[in-house]
Amino acid sequence: LDVIDQRFEKGVLVTTSAIGKFYSNGLDYETVTRMEQERDTRFWNECLYPLWRRLLTYPMPTIALINGHAFAGGLMTAFMHDYRIMNPHRGFLCLNEVEFGAPLKAPMSSIFRQKITSPNTYRSLVLEAKRFKALEALKEGIVDGLGGVDEMIDLVKEWGLVGKGRAGVYGRLKETMWRETVGSLKGEDLENDEREEGEREGRRRDERRRVEEWEARSGKIGAKL
Q: If you placed Cys at 26, which of 73, 116, 176, 212 could pair as Cys (CB 3.0 to 4.6 Å)?
């Protein structure tokens, strides 16, 4: 990304996958879980978040050409782009963290909240792990167009994207547009995340204690309401 930015004329950055079936299936969850358990924040602060922030504030238009499935972190990465164009014949878009027990960190949630205008669509993504096919994704504003490379080039011309970065303010405009997510990607929410996790643990302990007290009073262990 730095080489393209520094050594080439400003144009349009496009990412896609050489694997026909997948744009990206997201992170290696086992490795991420281990790092979380070890309280190792280097992956987020030094690897993933800097990449996402670079894409989100890149000084020229960016397009995720989604050639196949985009799940979880793969869909998040696509949302760090300015535009998303999806293969109309293959793939689902899905945030399935609710199905494998992964809470969304602040920037993971805020990018969808900022870029998806419908609260119902946002809810369907986050709380229902709904799988969106191309036509429905376009209708709900999750993607901006349908097609492959040829259609993407046509849309770039139609939207007049080539040259938009030449004035030198394109990235700065995006920093302002997506200020909430940019701030989270800078690590400003890490201390809040750790404090909130501690508070959640405290609430869970209190909840267990109240249940145990209720069971003791009612004489019913493992009772159901």
A: 73
